[in-house]
């Protein structure tokens, strides 16, 4: 009876997770036998392994759902410091991006004003004046 970790287990797929140390919800405390066959195959059983087969017994204790492992305080502090540093850097990057947008908008406004001074077709008048108003509005709201 060779079965993988996910197939044929009475306690379900959660047993494999419980095998590596995460609590599993079970009906009652039960013993699970891990049998390593001569060819290296591993079987999980509810009954003891046959004679001549290497075995290991684990007791699955009844728990009430998942219990998160306690965090180490030092690791939590390190994560908090990293967040603070990244937030400070993010604010600086956002400020630089806004300065670049303002600079580009000022350049666009300058090109539109140059075009208005140099002359333009009558059909372009409304569009050029609209762009001029939009750029001036943006600069007054976000840059000055």
UniProtKB/TrEMBL annotation:
GO terms for molecular function: DNA-binding transcription factor activity. Residues 63-101 are annotated as: Disordered. Residues 82-97 form the BZIP domain. Residues 75-86 have a biased composition (Basic residues). This is BZIP domain-containing protein.
């Amino acid at each position: 009876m060779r079965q993988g970790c996910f197939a044929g287990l009475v306690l379900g797929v959660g047993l494999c997770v419980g095998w590596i140390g995460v609590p599993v919800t079970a009906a009652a405390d039960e013993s699970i036998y891990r049998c390593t066959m001569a060819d290296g195959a591993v079987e999980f059983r509810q009954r003891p392994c046959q004679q001549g087969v290497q075995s290991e017994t684990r007791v699955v204790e009844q728990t009430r759902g998942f219990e998160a492992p306690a965090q180490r305080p030092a690791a939590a502090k390190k994560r908090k410091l990293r967040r603070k540093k990244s937030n400070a850097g993010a604010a600086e990057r956002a400020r630089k991006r806004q300065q670049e947008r303002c600079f580009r908008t000022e350049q666009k406004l300058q090109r539109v004003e140059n075009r208005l001074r140099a002359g333009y077709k009558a059909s372009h008048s409304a569009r050029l004046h609209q762009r001029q108003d939009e750029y001036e509005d943006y600069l007054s709201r976000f840059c000055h």
